[in-house]
Every structure is written in structure tokens, then in C-alpha cells.
Design a protein that fits this description.
With about 475 residues, this protein is mainly α. Among the domains are: about 270 residues, no CATH class; about 55 residues, no CATH class. Helices cover about 45% and strands about 10% of the residues. It is built from 15 helices and ten strands. The strands form four sheets. It has a three-stranded antiparallel β-sheet. A three-stranded antiparallel β-sheet has the order 4-5-6, with no helix packed on it. α3 packs across α4, α4 packs across α6 and α11 packs antiparallel against α12. It is elongated, with a radius of gyration of 34 Å. It starts with about 30 loop residues before the first helix and ends in a 29-residue tail after the last helix.
């Protein structure tokens, strides 16, 4: 029996348009439609015999999509699904935690640029991280540096760029026609929206591009991690569509009235003596007409009124469990750590997340450091090399952090200032207060409860001068 025959939501006439693929049409399944890439899971007649062939065909179609279409779908998935946004957001915050330029010279350069020019280095890094975690690639572009002001760095949507590389040669083609004019810098679009491939750097270029690819060398852009989640997202969307249509149907209350009964024994068995008559139908309808809410209704013994709703089990979360389980597996340690209730397991998963974070930091950090921040085309005049660093304590638990700081201070491997910075304390303020405490120790005694007889001050503070 088809979904249409059972009142399901997978029918063509009642399918909810997929927000993940908004340009696709709702239509009956046909080989020509699949070949054109205009089908969604919601458009399938999910009969037992149809599932293997039709869904496999749809999966095959996804495998043949052009790269631009794949990256476009990844961005839509990130925009639409809360758990995808959450995973990407958490990873961005964790991996970019403590971003800074190493050393006194690096910090001085950063503070000077932020103070004098209002340059937001953290925004540049977050843009690169976000694009890299969504599409596993990032394309940064900036104008040729002029004067003392640092050029703004724009991280393009990956679907706007085609990229190929072989050996030391890199070329790109920009696809700004895919976007509205207002979404792209007008100068950039006018200058570079070419149909032909162009090298990343040409003599006299006004704009410069740098590409971080998550793919194998010589293969252009890498395949995004989100690509492996497409099929599960489509199934999740089908389940959401079912809930949506069920909720819409749930608002319509069907009032059912039963009158009469059958004779099952005796000489009149099977006779329609007490069956509902047409006159009874008219009388009952007139009685109930325009009556909503609370009202009185008088009947004899064989009139029964009931209200029919969808079974609450229709909305049971259990139907999402298998799909959400696969999504959690895709998300990796981030979601597993959040869901884990066992400390030992959490520690093991944190180690996996740390390994993933360090690998990502090496890729993104080196890209930003070499291709942008130390690039003479971006930073005219050169200067001391800038080294990108991130917090080494991001993946430590509170216990691990305190143990590490104590061990480092005890063995002379860390200064008190570094320890305070690791604990997010104000170094200048703490130094000032420690000096004050050393100069007047009686005013900085530890606080004890007065009732224990350890101090005579009623509030746990030292007694006032002159008091007993």
C-alpha cells in the first residue's frame, strides 16, 4: 500500500517543499526527474518495493552533483538544521579559542592594528574557521595593500568559486552569477567575474586570492564532511514533514456521532431495525450545527459522541532515534561528549576531540599565518614574522588545568603571569593586590567563621583596631 493510500505525507499532492532543496519541484517520481536532479525524498512514493531502487537512485544523483551544488546544499543544511549549526558553532569556538599572535612583537602589532585601524583579526579567523568547517575549504581574498592601512579579508562562499591545482600552479574561476549583486562586493564582482580560469596571482592584480583546500593535492577542492550527511538530513526532513502535516491535521477536530445498533441474535438477527435512518442524520446534524465549546445535548441510550484525533504516538520522538543516532556519529566527539554521562568516557572522547582540534588548528592556523598575515601583498613593509597561536588549555578539564599550572609553577616552567592569564585573571590588578596584601598582611587574613573561635570579629574579619 502506498503512502498516498495510507494518508501519509510522502505523496506528491501533499508533499511539503524541501527547504534544503528549495528549487526542486514536487512531482511524481520519474527517471527523467532524477536525472535532472529535481527530486527530494519527500517526493518519493515509499512503497516497500520502491525504497531500495528509488532511494539508491537519489543517492547516486547526489554523488554526481557538481561541486558548486554540493557546497550550496552544505550551506543550506548549516542554515536550516539546528544540530548542524550547533556542531559547527561549538567547533568554531573551541578550535579558535585563544587565537592570538605569539610573542611581544606579535601582540604589539595586533593591539596597534586594532587600536589605530579598528582591524578585527578575530573576525577574519572566525570567517575562515566557519567556512572550513562547513565546506572543508576556504577561499580568502583581499585587495592589494596600499598605504599603512591593512586590507580587509573577505572569505568567499565556496560555491562561488571553482578551483584547480596541479604542482605549483593554482587557478580559480569565480561564479558570482550564482549570487545576487548585493551579496558580493561590486568592485570584486565587476573586476573578477570572468568566465575564464585565472591564476591566483597575476602581475598588477587588484585582488589577491588564497585557497585552503581540504582535498588531496592536485584534486582541487576537498569533499565536505557534511556531504556524508545529506541522505540522513533528507530522511530527517521527511520525518519533520510528517510532523508538520500531522500538526496541521491535528488542528481539525472531527466529531463523530454514532446512533443505532446491530441485532446479533434472535429471530431479528441481522435486520436493520435499529440502524441509523436518514431522518436521524438530519436531526443530529441540525442539533449540533454551530455548537462549539460547552453545550447541552440530550439523547437516548444508543447515541454516542466522540472526537477523533491522530494517535499521539504519531509524534513520538522514537521515530527520529535511528536518524539522530547516525547524525551523532557524524558529529563525532563534540556531540558524544555532550551526551555522555560517564566521566571516563568523556575523558576519552575529549582526547579524540583534542586530536581533531589540533589537526584543524595546524591547517587553518598555518593558512592564515603564511597566506594572509605574513603575505607581503597584504602586509606592506613586512616587519617581524607573525606567528598564529591558539590556547593550549582549550581541551583541558578544570582539574587537569589546575594540576598542570601547579606542576609548571612548582618546577619553574611557567611564570605566575602566564598562570594568571591561563585562569583569565587580570594580571595587572592581581599584581597590585598582592603588593597591597604583602604591605599590610593584617588586612588580608583568610576569612574564618567567627563562631569557631578563630577570630573575634563578628563578620569573620580581623577585629577593628583598639577592640578586644
Amino acid at each position: 500500500m502506498s503512502a498516498k493510500e495510507t494518508g501519509g505525507v510522502a505523496t506528491q499532492s501533499g508533499a511539503v517543499q524541501s527547504a534544503l532543496f528549495p528549487e526542486f519541484e514536487s512531482a511524481r517520481l520519474a527517471a527523467s526527474k532524477l536525472s535532472q536532479g529535481r527530486m527530494t525524498i519527500s517526493d518519493l512514493e515509499l512503497t516497500p518495493t520502491a525504497i531500495p531502487a528509488e532511494i539508491q537512485s537519489l543517492k547516486a544523483k547526489w554523488m554526481q552533483d557538481s561541486p558548486a551544488d554540493v557546497y550550496k546544499v552544505c550551506r543550506r543544511a548549516w542554515k536550516k538544521y539546528s544540530f548542524v549549526r550547533r556542531v559547527i558553532g561549538i567547533k568554531t569556538d573551541l578550535f579558535n579559542d585563544g587565537f592570538a599572535f605569539q610573542g611581544e612583537a606579535g601582540r604589539a602589532f595586533e593591539e596597534n592594528a586594532e587600536t589605530q585601524q579598528g582591524y578585527d583579526f578575530n573576525r577574519v579567523m572566525r570567517d575562515i574557521w566557519q567556512e572550513y568547517l562547513i565546506c572543508n575549504n576556504a577561499v580568502a581574498c583581499f585587495e592589494d595593500a596600499s598605504g599603512v592601512r591593512l586590507p580587509a579579508v573577505t572569505v568567499l562562499d565556496t560555491e562561488l568559486v571553482e578551483y584547480k591545482d596541479w604542482g605549483s600552479e593554482e587557478q580559480i574561476k569565480l561564479l558570482f552569477a550564482l549570487k545576487k549583486k548585493n551579496d558580493v562586493n561590486e568592485s570584486l564582482a565587476t573586476t573578477l567575474a570572468d568566465k575564464d580560469w585565472r591564476p591566483l596571482d597575476k602581475e598588477g592584480d587588484e585582488w589577491h586570492f588564497r585557497v585552503l583546500s581540504g582535498g588531496k593535492g592536485g584534486k582541487g577542492f576537498g569533499v565536505p564532511d557534511l556531504f556524508s550527511l545529506f541522505f540522513d538530513l533528507a530522511v530527517f526532513e521527511l520525518l519533520q514533514s510528517a510532523d508538520w502535516q500531522g500538526a496541521k491535521r491535528h488542528r481539525d477536530i472531527m466529531r463523530k456521532v454514532s446512533k443505532g445498533h446491530a441485532i446479533t441474535a434472535g429471530p431479528l438477527a441481522g435486520q436493520p431495525t435499529f440502524f441509523l435512518k436518514k431522518s436521524d442524520i438530519t436531526t443530529i446534524k441540525n442539533s449540533l450545527k454551530d455548537k462549539l465549546g460547552s453545550f447541552d445535548f440530550v439523547t437516548n441510550f444508543d447515541v454516542e459522541i466522540e472526537h477523533v484525533f491522530l494517535d499521539p504516538k504519531f509524534f513520538d520522538r522514537e521515530k527520529y532515534s535511528a536518524t539522530m543516532g547516525r547524525i551523532r556519529e557524524w558529529a563525532g566527539p563534540v556531540m558524544q561528549v555532550m551526551a555522555s554521562q560517564t566521566q571516563d568516557v568523556t575523558t576519552f572522547l575529549r582526547d579524540l576531540l583534542e586530536a581533531e582540534g589540533k589537526a584543524a588548528r595546524r591547517a587553518v592556523g598555518k593558512f592564515a599565518e603564511i597566506q594572509i598575515f605574513n603575505n607581503p601583498l597584504w602586509r606592506k613593509g613586512g616587519g617581524e614574522r607573525l606567528k598564529v597561536t591558539f590556547s593550549p588549555f582549550t581541551f583541558y578539564s578544570a582539574k587537569q588545568l589546575l594540576e598542570f599550572l601547579n606542576w609548571s609553577l612548582s618546577n619553574g616552567l611557567m611564570s605566575p603571569q602566564t598562570a594568571r592569564e591561563a585562569l583569565c585573571l587580570d594580571v595587572e590588578m592581581e599584581s597590585k593586590r598582592l603588593i597591597e596584601a604583602a604591605a599590610k598582611p593584617e588586612g588580608f587574613r583568610p576569612v574564618f567563621e567567627a563562631k569557631q573561635g578563630m577570630m573575634s570579629g563578628g563578620d569573620g574579619r580581623p577585629p577593628a583596631e583598639g577592640s578586644v
